[in-house]
Amino acid sequence: MTRPIAQELSIEIEATTLQGVLRVPRGARGAILFVHGSGSGRLSARNTYVAERLSDAGLVTLLFDLLTLEEEEIDSVTAEMRFDIPLLMGRLLAVTAWTRSHPQLQGLNIGYFGASTGAAAALAAAARAPDIGAIVSRGGRPDLAGSALAQVRAPTLLIVGGHDQEVLALNRGALAKLTCLARLEIVPGATHLFVEPGALECVASLAASWFERHLSGVSPGAAALEPVRAAGQRD
Fold it and tell me: Is the pLDDT of residue 155 over 50?
């Protein structure tokens, strides 16, 4: 299958313009919005790799900057905006609405792929948007979503490197607070950025399988009503 051309675009939301990269494969069965982590953006090499794999699986992918260029310059010095989960959540919800109104994307089920602090923003946004179909977190900080975790209804997959001990502990704690269909996948031997040979490929494969399962004709509400199994690893 020919990989779709990456389209650079500007996303107008309220009084803010965010830059994005959109890939739309033929016969797309869902749209995945990438929510990047601390200090990263739409050009993240790791997220781009995962996006290409998801595109190969027939999913639309949208990578976008959560902050404007001016905000990024401020954040590079203060590092305050990357941890402002309400701000990032608001931006994600606005981009979600933009996606739903886009002529090429109307009617597609939407999923979120979050990394680091972006995973918290994705979970917090999903708590406010119950029609989100699925969430995948890569090396995320779901703990930063706080009380919103209990309100998430979208099936959620948490992926953590086996050697990322601190983040792994935080994800286990967050998993216990999720009441939706949820699963924790540990990639053996991987560190926080999944730079080890085969680690990022594993992330992409897990994410593609999760989104294909939960965005293919299954309503988010129906998925959320599935019984949750014992804590630790559920699904």
Answer: yes
Say if pTM beats, i.e. exceeds, 0.90: no
Measure the CA–CA gap between 138 and 110, rounded to whole angstroms.
17
Supply the CATH number for residue 65's domain: 3.40.50.1820
Residue 167 lies in a domain: yes
When divided into structural domains, the chain yields a total of 1
Specify if 4 maps to a domain. Answer: no
Does residue 143 lie within any of the structural domains?
yes
166: CB partners within 8 A, 6+ apart: none
Specify whether the CB–CB gap between 63 and 36 falls below 8 A: yes
- Residue showing tokens 């016969």: 27
Structure tokens at 147: 């009380």
Range of the domain at 46: 13-224
Instruction: Give the model's confidence band at 127: pLDDT under 50 very low, under 70 low, under 90 confident, else very high.
Output: very high
